[in-house]
Every structure is written in structure tokens, then in C-alpha cells.
Specification:
Number of domains: 2
Strand content: 5-15%
Largest sheet: 7 strands, mixed
Shape: globular
CATH class of the largest domain: Alpha Beta
CATH superfamily of the largest domain: Type I PLP-dependent aspartate aminotransferase-like (Major domain)
Structural class: alpha/beta
Bound molecules: pyridoxal-5'-phosphate
CATH architecture of the largest domain: 3-Layer(aba) Sandwich
Length: 404
């Protein structure tokens, strides 16, 4: 058992009670009032008009791309520094995928890297027909959404925010107005993941947020096998009274979440603000400890701060390590830290390095490669305190100094 895992779920007595209450209530457990209540609470939290809870963040991405009619002539532009799901869900729609580079310090796409990728695509011998732009708020740090949305509008692209890491994050526009990630103020659809180690843990789960009634309607239909229960939309309504009747016009999936996991999700959502405060405190403690410990050697730097520091959701705390300067490989550092009880992880193997995506044409992704070469996510979760931060930083210092 690692003393300091890089992340872990935060399950408390009230979560257990919420699930137990549902299990013992005689409720149907599958589809029921917990889902509806959870969806309303997510709307209240994010400010979005619709929230469509489903059984994973990947399902939410797939529903988002389906609702936006992704397909062979409606491709996706996204970042290579993300989990596979961001791109895979577009491939599931039969869409071409292209990658834009990222800022080498934050790992996020920027208006400049997106503009360059669009220019390079246009200049290619066979440009991909791009219709959807999916920025990822890596580690919980919001991208510059107002500028990205303006650029997307210029190029006629729909925007899907992959906010899997960013529940509770906020950002500002140039006038200083603050927006909640998920409000969809600068995108068509935003998705969150409720996987076990995300800010809200449902084991597996996710949600799609949108302010667009038609997109919400399509996503809800695709979530449940394409089933249409609204008689006004039926193509061949039965002549006789038929209360059981429904129609299917397009292929859908079973992406439904259950009442059972939504009871857990609702209980977790009540602690979102507490979690944000705790993670920000940990990040500040790391910044201070890393600055005072490594300031002189320069082998490690804390993550670059966003312009609006308080808006970061701190799902991950990725440090940048100059492994060459330290005279160690990333693998050796990870293994040595593990022996000292400190978990670490790499987010992520960039998608253009994956054999599956090797034939995707792309210009330089040097920002993504530099980010991949240097970053290591160190522990960041609700079960840590400031004392843990001190110990973890000391262990990192010791490994980098002694090499084991
Ligand atoms: C950036 C990103 N997008 C999408 C997903 C997919 O979410 P899920 O695991 O809930 O399917 C993840 C999962 O970790 C992720 O990190």
C-alpha cells in the first residue's frame, strides 16, 4: 500500500448513508428520482440549462459529438495531451481527428496553437473537414475559453469543453466577469467525468451540460438507444390508444447512469466547494515547499500559475522536472518515489505517440512533447494535508539528490 497515492476517492459516512438509504428504500435503483435531482443540482452548480448524466465521461463525450453530428465530414480538432477518450469518442462517430499543439508549461491548447493547427490543416494536401473543437482543461486549469470561442466562431467550429478534470473551476473574460466551467458560456457543450478519482466520485459516471435545447434533446435520445417517447415526433403513430408505444429513428446506446450511483454523486456534489478549497490549500503549500526546496537547484518547478489562480480546480498537481539536470530518467524517479511510498503518474502519453493515432498528419507538436518529457503528477487529493505535502516534497528532493 502506497502511503501517499497520487490520487484516491474520498468516501465518507454520509456517502455510504446516501447509497445505503437508497438500497434499503425499496427504490427501483435503475432509472428514478435520484437522476433527475442530480441533474438539477448540476445545473444549479454550473449554471447550465441542461445536465444529462450518463455512465462515464467517455459516454458524455460520445453523446456530445453525436449531438453535434460528428462524422466523416465533421472532424475533431483537439489536444494530444489528454486521455484517449477525448479523441476516441470522435473516432467512434467515424470522424477524422487532428491535433493542435499545447503550451509547454500548462499542457493546455491556446488560441495561438489552435490557430496554427487550423492554418496547417488548411495548407495540407488533403485538409480534414474539421467541425468540432475540443479544448481540455488539463488537470483542472481552465483554457482561455473566451478567446478560444471567438476563434472557433471565426472558423465555424462547434466547441465541446472536455472538463473531465475541472468540476468547480472558473475563469474570467477580458472584462473581469467570472464564469463557471460547465456554464457553457463559451461552448456548445461541456462534459465532466465522475470517475473514482475525480472531484465527484461515482465509481464511473459523467455528465453533459449544454444551454441548447435541441442538443440536449438529441443527447438524451442517444443516451437511451435512440428511443423517442414524444408522440409529436413519431413517424408512424399507432391508430389505437397504445400507452406502451415508442419509436427509434437513429441508433443510440445505453449510456444511462443508475439511481444508485446518482445517490453517491449527489452526496459528493455537496462537498464540491470544500474539495476546491482543500485542493487550493494543498497547491499553495506545494508551491511554497517546492519554491523554497528547489529554488536554488532549479531541477523542479511548480506548475505555471494561471492568470486567475483561484479558478484552477487542481484535479492534478503536475511538477516540471529537468530530468537531464537531475541526471535521472522519469522512470527511475517514479520507481524511487514509489519505494518511498509516494505515488506519481504521467498525464498523459500524448495521443500522437499512440500506435493507433500514428497516421494522423500533424505539424510540430513540440509543446506537447516538451510537456510530456518534463511533467510528473504528484499526490493531490482530499486525504492529504499540509504535513503530507512537506513529506512528499522532502522525498522528491531526496530522490533527485541521491538518485534512489
Ligand atoms: C481529459 C479526460 N477526458 C475524458 C475522460 C473520460 O472520462 P471517463 O473515465 O469518466 O470515461 C477522462 C478520464 O479520466 C479524462 O481524463
Amino acid at each position: 500500500m502506497v502511503a501517499y497515492p497520487y490520487s484516491c476517492p474520498d468516501i465518507r459516512e454520509e456517502d455510504i448513508q446516501a447509497v445505503t438509504n437508497l438500497l434499503t428504500s425499496g427504490a427501483f435503483l435503475s432509472q428514478g428520482p435520484e437522476i433527475t435531482a442530480f441533474e438539477q443540482e448540476i445545473c444549479d452548480q454550473t449554471g447550465s440549462r441542461h445536465a444529462i448524466v450518463c455512465n462515464s465521461g467517455t459516454a458524455a463525450l460520445h453523446l456530445a459529438y453525436l449531438a453535434l453530428e460528428s462524422g466523416p465530414t465533421r472532424g475533431l480538432l483537439t489536444t494530444p495531451v489528454t486521455f484517449l477518450a477525448t479523441a476516441n469518442a470522435a473516432v467512434m462517430c467515424g470522424a477524422p481527428v487532428r491535433f493542435a499543439d499545447v503550451d509547454r508549461d500548462t499542457g493546455n491548447m491556446t488560441p495561438e496553437t489552435i490557430r496554427n493547427a487550423l492554418r496547417d490543416n488548411e495548407a495540407a494536401a488533403a485538409p480534414a473537414p474539421l467541425a468540432i473543437l475540443a479544448p481540455v482543461h488539463l488537470g483542472g486549469r481552465p483554457c482561455d475559453m473566451p478567446a478560444i470561442k471567438a476563434l472557433a466562431d471565426e472558423h465555424g467550429l462547434a466547441v465541446v469543453e472536455d472538463a473531465a478534470h475541472a468540476m468547480g473551476a472558473t475563469y474570467r473574460d477580458a472584462s473581469g466577469e467570472t464564469f463557471e466551467v460547465g456554464s457553457c458560456a463559451h461552448c456548445d457543450i461541456a462534459i465532466f467525468s465522475f470517475h473514482a478519482i475525480k472531484h465527484i466520485c461515482m465509481g464511473e459516471g459523467g455528465v453533459l451540460c449544454t444551454n441548447d435545447d435541441a442538443l440536449a434533446d438529441r443527447a438524451r435520445t442517444y443516451r437511451n438507444h435512440g428511443i423517442i417517447r414524444n408522440p409529436d415526433a413519431w413517424l408512424s403513430p399507432p391508430e389505437a390508444d397504445a400507452p406502451w408505444y415508442y419509436e427509434m429513428h437513429e441508433l443510440g446506446w445505453n449510456y444511462r447512469a443508475t439511481d444508485l450511483v446518482c445517490a453517491l454523486g449527489r452526496s459528493q456534489l455537496r462537498r464540491l466547494a470544500e474539495g476546491g478549497d482543500h485542493r487550493r490549500r494543498l497547491a499553495a503549500a506545494y508551491d511554497a515547499a517546492l519554491g523554497s526546496t528547489f529554488g536554488a537547484t532549479g531541477a523542479v518547478t511548480a506548475p505555471a500559475l494561471p492568470s486567475d489562480e483561484r479558478g484552477h480546480a487542481w484535479h492534478l498537481y503536475p511538477i516540471a522536472v529537468d530530468f537531464e539536470k537531475a541526471g535521472l530518467t522519469k522512470g527511475a524517479v517514479m520507481r524511487a518515489l514509489a519505494e518511498r511510498g509516494v505515488g506519481a503518474q504521467v498525464h498523459y502519453v500524448p495521443l500522437h505517440h499512440q500506435p493507433f493515432y500514428k497516421d494522423v498528419p500533424h505539424a510540430s507538436l513540440s509543446g506537447a512533447d516538451a510537456y510530456y518529457a518534463s511533467t510528473l503528477s504528484i499526490p493531490m487529493h482530499m486525504k492529504m494535508d499540509d504535513a503530507a505535502v512537506e513529506i512528499i516534497v522532502q522525498e522528491i528532493q531526496s530522490v533527485l539528490k541521491n538518485g534512489n
